[in-house]
């Protein structure tokens, strides 16, 4: 597997957010992986990691679906500063857009009951699943 390519990096909540383009799987193509490192972390330093899906929603409003991120970096930085958790690295894996249901669902979303009568979300009625 090729080495990930860094796309951009920025200071965020006392730590550092870096975004890498990573080859996920030959059939699914590339994925963005966002890596937030805690304040004071240095390359090569061993720490625990928290891996989260929907990486585009975790850290920055300008990247998040709906324009409001989930504030993960601020929450984790606060918990580290309060000594509620040890320093950790957070890795957010972006989903693949329309192929998101292929990644997350064991079957296509068609046929699921919903108030509007089609799948789990009307705009995902014909989305793939079963990945």
From TrEMBL:
InterPro entries: AB_hydrolase_fold, Mycobacterial_A85_antigen. It comes from the Eukaryota. This is Esterase.
């Amino acid at each position: 597997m090729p080495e990930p390519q860094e796309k951009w990096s920025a200071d965020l909540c006392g730590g550092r957010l870096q975004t890498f383009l990573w080859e996920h799987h030959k059939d699914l193509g590339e994925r963005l992986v966002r890596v937030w490192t805690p304040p004071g972390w240095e390359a090569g330093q061993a720490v625990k990691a928290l891996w989260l899906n929907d990486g585009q929603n975790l850290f920055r409003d300008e990247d998040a679906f709906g324009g409001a991120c989930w504030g993960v970096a601020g929450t984790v930085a606060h918990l580290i500063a309060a000594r509620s958790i040890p320093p950790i690295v957070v890795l957010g894996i972006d989903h693949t857009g329309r192929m998101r249901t292929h990644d997350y669902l064991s079957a296509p979303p068609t046929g699921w009951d919903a108030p509007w009568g089609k799948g789990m979300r009307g705009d995902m009625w014909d989305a793939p699943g079963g990945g």
